[in-house]
Write a structure and sequence with these properties.
Layout: H1 2-23, H2 29-37, H3 41-66, H4 74-90, H5 96-108, H6 112-140, H7 147-176, H8 183-196, H9 205-230, H10 237-251, H11 263-272, H12 279-307, H13 315-325
Length: 329
């Protein structure tokens, strides 16, 4: 187990190094450092404020998806969202979703499997929102968005969304089945029942519309955060921010080191260089953004994490154990 984890971490580090090497190819380091010091601090702070607004929308969304499990207070939900981002920035392999689920299961005293189910719903909504944004970029004819590559990305996201919906549908049917199962399958059925419990309460049209609206609001907040960060000026700034939002979030699908180091730098360069920014300036903005997000999520998330009396270095193992041993509440 330790060896496989070490291999995955090493592979992620290798991917990050490759992307970093590509991002810094032909970069003049003196100009990069100058550009880094010239990043507008006010724009960065405003960007982080809109990032927090995105977390607020996600916390409200989480209240809807988890209300069949527990009536959690808003600070608990907001803290869980922040902790998820913090863990993604500190732990490899995008472990934030597991850490967030475990935190919520402890704070709200619910099954970790059910808590993880609510996070999966949010991620499916994210895929749907990203699909809409990618279609908007294609229709808009955003500079730097290669149509052929965009169609491939659209097809991949549509496939992910379809698979997710099919999995939820099959699990719901399995849960509603009245056929007697062998004893060996009872444990699996219990886990399915835990996982499907919050999802079964989200089928009303009003609820789905509210969730989609909140997801789009969260993405709109992220878009505005990119818009105020780059601050390139001119009529193409709206396009540049949309392309940056798309590339950053598509890049997060690539397995790499914590915080998507390297992948983030390539995403910023690919999105901003076509709109007139120097490669050194794009890299400077990428590092300023990453450092700002890491510091913000740690500053806000660490108190929530410590308040739940959890240990960061043991969370991934505890999550897996909790998923296996939790009983239906």
């Amino acid at each position: 187990m330790f060896r496989s984890r070490a291999i995955r971490i090493a592979a992620g580090a290798g991917v990050s190094l490759i992307f970093l090497a590509g991002a810094f190819y032909n970069v003049r380091l003196s100009e990069f450092w100058s550009a880094l010091w010239e990043v507008n601090v006010f724009s960065l702070l405003l960007c982080l404020w809109f990032f927090i607004l995105n977390c607020v929308f996600r916390a409200v969304m989480w209240r809807i998806t988890s209300r069949s499990l527990a009536q959690a207070a808003f600070p608990t939900l907001f803290g869980g969202v922040i902790i998820g981002y913090m863990a993604n920035n500190l732990l490899p392999l995008r472990a934030g979703e597991l850490v967030r689920s475990y935190y919520f299961s402890v704070r709200a005293d619910v099954s970790c499997t059910a808590a993880f189910s609510t996070v999966c719903v949010e991620r499916l909504l994210d895929v749907f929102s990203l699909l809409l944004l990618l279609m908007l970029g294609l229709c808009w004819g955003v500079r730097g968005l290669v149509p052929q590559a965009a169609v491939v990305a659209l097809s991949f996201l549509a496939l992910v969304l379809l698979i997710g919906v099919l999995i939820f549908t099959c699990l719901a049917r399995l849960n509603s089945s009245r056929q007697k199962s062998p004893a060996i399958l009872l444990n699996i059925q219990n886990r399915v029942k835990e996982f499907i419990q919050p999802i079964s309460k989200l089928q009303q049209p009003k609820t789905l519309v509210a969730l989609i609206g909140l997801s789009l609001a969260a993405w709109a907040s992220n878009y505005v955060s990119m818009l105020v960060l780059i601050n390139t000026g001119g009529e193409n700034q709206l396009e540049a921010a949309l392309l940056l939002l798309l590339f950053v979030n598509l890049g997060l699908l690539v397995p790499s080191t914590p915080g998507a180091l390297g992948v983030m730098q390539v995403a910023f360069c690919m999105a901003l260089v076509p709109f007139g920014l120097l490669q050194e300036q794009a890299l400077a903005h990428s590092f300023a953004y990453q450092i700002g997000i890491v510091l913000l999520t740690v500053a806000l998330g660490f108190p929530y994490f410590m308040g739940a009396h959890l240990r960061l270095n043991k969370v991934p193992n505890k999550v897996l154990l909790n998923k296996t041993d939790a009983s239906l509440n």
